[in-house]
Amino acid sequence: MRIVVTDALAASIAGGAAGVALGGFLGIVIGFALQQVLGQADAGLFLLIARPFKIHDNVNIAGEDGVVEEVSSLFTTVIKPDDTKALIPNNAIIGNKIYLKPVAQ
After folding, report:
1. Hey, what CATH topology would domain 53-100 get?
2. CA spacing 20 to 30 A to 76: which of 31, 36, 61, 63?
């Protein structure tokens, strides 16, 4: 869909085959630019559906120890023991080990 829109826009500006070529190039550039963000959003959607961990779980995710504060579409927020927040990109979580630690009593 993005390529079709950019093709139509470029064709109206440049006209003919040059416009289609320009639109194709713009579509590729936009696709590469959005690749990382869309990958993170897909990973976030997977985390929200699969729920391998919940908010307030004590975890080790991507080498970061702490308590899960929030899971959004792009990042998972973990509060570390020294009260700093670690924003972990969701695509760094998918495919890596997730350690769920027991709750201290």
Report:
1. SH3 type barrels. (2.30.30)
2. 31
